[in-house]
Amino acid sequence: MKIKNKQNLIWHVVFILLVLLFLYPIVFAVSTSFKSLNEAFNSTLNLIPKEFTLEAYTSILKKIPIVRITLNTFAIATIVTTFKLVTGVLAAYSFVFFDFKGKTLMYFILVSTIFIPFTVTMIPNFITVSKIGLRDNIIGVALPQLADATGIFLLRQHMRGIPRSLLEVAKLEKTPHIKILSSIVVPIIKPAILSIGIIFFINSWNEFVWPSLILKSREHYTLSLALQMFVSSEGGTDIPVAMAISVLTMLLPLTIFAFCQKHIINTFVQSGIKG
Amino acid sequence: MNSIRFEEVSKSFGKTKVINQLNMEIKKGERMILLGPSGCGKSTILRMISGLEAITVGNLYLNDQLANDIDSGDRSIAMVFQNYALFPHMTIEENVGYGLRINKMDKGEVKKKVVEVVDILGLNGLEGRYPKELSGGQRQRVALARALVKRADFFLLDEPLSNLDAQLRGQARKELVKIHEMYNQTFIYVTHDQIEAMTIGHRIALMNQGDLQMLDTPHNVYHRPANVFVATFIGSPSMNIISAKSAGRELLVGPHRIELPDMWLAQIHRSDSTNIKLGVRPEDMILSKNKENLSVPVDVKYVEDYGNRVGYYFDLGDEEAISIMSENIFGTGDQVYWNIKPDKLHFFDADTAQSLGYPKEIR
Asked: Which run of H or of E encompasses B211?
């Protein structure tokens, strides 16, 4: 990359510093996860382990059912993402392409739910899930999250960018709505669906408070709950183990982001602009 | 046999009336042009035929069958949209064959029909490309191909050439006429371009603010306009419209007294009022240094040289008039004569703006 002038140079320096700042905790976590407990306490700022050890990782395998926990996290994130996308696409389609009484009001109410804090719905949801008998069950974690107003909002924005005439061509050919949705609308906004899905997935993957309320037994835990087990547990925090779980937790989201970052950024930059 | 008939059709969007009691019949196989300035309701008429827009009041008959409540998918409509409306995620072949596939036609049959229209429109070799990989002219032809492959009874075109550059447009006009002659469907063509209207149409329906102004052949729309709006809308530059008063056998234009040609007497005296509007097309307004027996002296005020033609501006009474001639022979300030050709005049009622009609000697 060519640096054109002084101003550009300053911006580059600022951004490089910012990147280092954001990168530091991640590098710290990775390096500490390969340190022994002793070294972790003694040489906190040392980014390269003096003695490279897998102690922390073997200890995780011994202490908790980590494979099961990872699968739980994956299952919840997959269920939540799939349902949010399906309900979101259907809702957005009807908001964009159908005319019905009270549409504007309904949409307004729906979007306003975005602004209701989680803490408000947390307890009613907890009681409902408990009454249904889904406590300590990953389905109980997923259940209140099967639809999402933010997703509907974003999908609607993208669908509105589709020229009406495309739908009219389909109408003149007597295309049923489900076919219009599957063969025209979804393929056109596929990039948006993909990146919104990725964000749903990562959010669910990182979720802590709600699973911590619902899940009680270790074999039902998610990764963020497992991480919590090793932070300030009895006998103090085992830093290398905590970092090792952190590394495992961020492995999948980082990989997804690395592969799809262009998609994700485009979706948010272009939101509302026709492709 | 009429293929489309509007019977007292009105259309409102909320409180805004966009079509006002339209009565119109379109014959089978006819090329009908809906012409008018933007917002005149011409596209709305097209969309009512297609069923994409519902009719507020009145009846629409398609093939002599009341069609108000027929679903647009059941009307045998093929439509070319102004923005072409090609599916961006489908190849050209998939776009053209879309309607056939969705209606579960056999794959081999679809292929055969697609190949046929692709051939006719010269799109060979582009079948596997996506719309974004095509030029504007090619996209336009794909849109046409997709509409043609359907073999619908009604072929609707909504300003299909407006996104093309001038050169392509001329070529596409000829192609459209050729294609129509091949398939002979009823052709409804919306445009605001009078050249397209004059060259493509069998008949022109000229609309303004939701009202049908005139429905006739291009020749009559140009040579016998029904009212001042039609007279000034068709032709470029617009027809000169000059306020005048009739007084017996004379016509008063500003300070000038013009003897009325005999052929026009009956028409002029048909009007109750003496206030009339005199219309002359700029290209029919011949200026000369020499006075003839029916002429008005004018002063050239301003000259515009267009290269192939020259425009001379001058005042006639209170109005400014323009004459278009082929040669640049006069300069600003020249005193010349407008030598009147009686068969090139148009007269309108000043109050109603309606034509006073034409003597039988004219055309």
From this structure: strand B211-216
Q: Which residues of B touch A179 (CB under 8 A)?
A: 102
Least confident of A237-246, B185-194, B224-233: A237-246
Verify whether the Cβ–Cβ distance B79 to A173 is below 8 Å.
no
pLDDT digits (tens, 9 = 90+) for B314-362: 999 889 999 999 988 999 999 999 999 999 999 999 999 999 999 988 7
The residue range of the domain holding A144 is 64-269
Residue A36: left if φ>0, alpha if ψ -120 to 50, beta else—which one? beta
Residues A83, A30 within the same domain: no
Nearest partner of A165 among B147, B16, B153, B170, judged by Cα: B147
Q: Does A170 touch chain B (CB under 8 A)?
A: yes
* Domain end position, chosen among A15, A35, A55: A55
Helices marked H in A136-236 — which ranges?
138-142, 149-160, 164-172, 177-180, 186-188, 190-206, 209-214, 223-229
Q: What global pTM score does this model have? A: 0.82
- CATH at residue A86: 1.10.3720.10
Q: Where are the domains of chain B?
A: 2-228, 238-349
Within-domain flag for A274: no
Please give the Cα distance from B312 to B68 (Å, whole number).
52
Q: Backbone phi, then psi, for B271, in 5-degree steps? A: -75, 140
Inter-chain CB proximity A171 and B72 less than 8 Å? yes
Which tokens belong to B338?
A: 């407008």
- Assess whether A146 and A190 both reside in one domain: yes
> Looking at the DSSP assignment, which residues form a beta bridge with residue B288?
B337
Task: Characterise A102 by phi-psi region: left (phi > 0), alpha (psi -120 to 50), beta (else).
Answer: left
Q: How far B216 CA sits from the closest chain A CA (Å)? A: 29
CA gap A35, A56 in Å, rounded: 8
Q: What is the pLDDT of residue A82?
A: 97
CA distance B143 to chain A (A): 10
Looking at the structure, tell me whether residues A161 and A201 fall in a common domain. yes
The domain over range B2-228 is classified in CATH as 3.40.50.300:
yes
Q: Which of A166, A174, A275 is closest, CB to CB, to B87?
A: A166
Vertex B354: Cα angle to B350 and B359 (nearest 5): 105
Specify the CATH number for B238-349; select among 3.40.640.10, 3.40.50.1970, 1.10.645.10, 2.40.50.140: 2.40.50.140
pLDDT at A272 (0 to 100) = 45
Q: How much is the pLDDT for A273?
A: 42
Band (pLDDT 50/70/90 cuts) for residue A201 is: very high
C-alpha distance from residue A180 to each of A19, A153, A233, B132, B336 (Å): 44, 20, 54, 21, 68
pLDDT, tens digit (0-9, with 9 covering 90-100), for B118-155? 998 889 999 999 999 999 999 999 999 999 999 999 99
Interval A132-142 mean pLDDT: 94
Asked if residue B237 has a cis previous peptide bond (ω within 30° of 0), the answer is yes
Q: What is the per-residue pLDDT across A40-98, written as a single tens digit (0 to 9) for each?
A: 877 767 788 888 889 889 988 998 999 999 999 999 999 999 999 999 999 999 999 99
Classify residue A217 by burial, with Cβ atoms within 10 Å: 0-12, 13-18, 19+: exposed
